[in-house]
Amino acid sequence: MTRLLIVNAGSSSTRLTVLGPDDEVEEHLHLPPPGNDDTDAALDALVARARPQASVHRIVHGGPWFAGAVLADASTEERLRMLADLAPLHVPPSLQLLDRVRDAMPGHPAVACFDTGFFAGLPDEAATYPLPTEWRVAWSIRRYGFHGLSHAWVAGRLDQVLPPAAAHGRVVSAHLGAGASLAALDDGRPLDTTMGFTPLDGLVMATRPGSVDPGILLHLLRVGEVTLDQLEDGLEHHSGLVALAGNADLERVIARAASGDATASLAYRVLLHRLRAGIASMAAALGGIDGLVFTGGAGEASGTLRSDACGGLGFLGVGVDERANRGLRGEGLISSGGPVAVAVVTAREDLEMARQARALLAAAGG
User: Fold this and answer.
1) pTM (2 decimals)?
2) Catalytic residue selected from 85, 115, 186, 192
């Protein structure tokens, strides 16, 4: 099997991972964002050292065109550049690094995997915004969903972490990190999600607000003397936890709240309020809930977050075994024996990207 360079670029960092033929991690680098001289030098050294045969790139937004992994040729790149405005924090750095990796690996295939691809088949009732038809058609406005690579990995792990009835039933997947989203899975197929046209929608996040009344934004533009650029910057970088608590690190916010800090307490309660409501909403889309799976940095690391989230969902039959929850390291069940199985899955978008890329390259004879 092919040795792969997994590429994940953002506005604040670059992650490069080399996966060997059996998908073992051979090297992992966490670097500054693309365009930095140190990042360029580290990339060149890694390619020379590891000799990957293909690169695999996480692209946050696939728009209406990309529902699965594709070879990143000139036609693909042209369309991706048209999507940059939909995910300005993610798509431009990804394209910059795609070009840089191509220079470092001439003659080797590059594969693009999309966070929106998993949700390309959402039911019309979940994907459609009640906006004028001419807007929806002219600008391809719909709910795209994000974190699809993470939710797809969770869907593929359900048989390993949940009892069979739950694994093939109605499961809410909770990706909780600096960015956060939920997905409603029916036998592994997505029926709904909390993010929408862009990654700004849905749950409270580290620096993004999640769902807000669009009238607020109109009001700020109309009478608040806020420019469009200021509005975008505020929504992307200065909202969410950092706005409410002055800190984007959820673990620190939780610790401050536990010590009696009123500001941090409010921030955490707002986050929990939205999270519990979102999980209940996903359960409603599924017509019930058989399983709840936590993943992502905070979803995996914070037993407090998992316990507090589930503590408000007893009416759905959700409960955790506190000893299992607090003692868990890695993946496993943490439910209390009630009707809903609760588990944790280690986020491995890199392995999901590798799975998609290997399938595509095999089909193409690569």
Assistant:
1) 0.94
2) 115
CATH number for the domain whose boundaries are 162-349: 3.30.420.40
| C-alpha Rg value of the chain to the nearest Å | 20
CA distance 287 to 54: 42
Query: Is the separation of the CB atoms in 182 and 173 below 8 Å?
Result: yes
Calculate ∠ Cα 335-339-341, nearest 5°. Answer: 35
Over 70: is that where the pLDDT of 366 sits? no
Please report, for the chain, the start and end positions of each structural domain, with discontinuous segments joined by +: 4-114, 162-349
Structure confidence by residue, pLDDT tens digits, 168-188: 999 999 999 999 999 999 999
- Give the separation between CA 26 and CA 11, rounded to whole angstroms: 25
Helical pair 148-161 and 349-363, crossing angle rounded to 10 deg = 100
Task: Write the CA distances from 170 to 191, 254, 291, 299, integer angstroms.
Answer: 10, 30, 6, 19
65 residue type, one letter: W
The string of pLDDT tens digits covering residues 132-154 is: 999 999 989 999 999 999 999 99
Q: Based on the residue annotation, tell me whether 233 is a catalytic residue of this protein.
A: no
Domain 162-349 in the same topology as domain 4-114? yes
> What's the burial of 333, exposed, middle or buried (CB within 10 Å: 0-12/13-18/19+)?
buried
Question: Is the pLDDT score of 76 beyond 90?
Answer: no
Residue 248 contacts residue 242 (beta carbons within 8 Å): yes
Segment 221-247 mean pLDDT:
95
**Nearest C-alpha neighbor of 122 from the set 151, 80, 88:** 151
- Rounded to 10°, the helix 91-104/74-81 angle is 160
Beta strands in the chain (DSSP E): 4-9, 14-19, 25-31, 54-59, 70-71, 110-114, 170-176, 180-186, 189-193, 291-295, 332-333, 341-344
Query: 4-114 architecture in CATH?
Result: 2-Layer Sandwich (3.30)
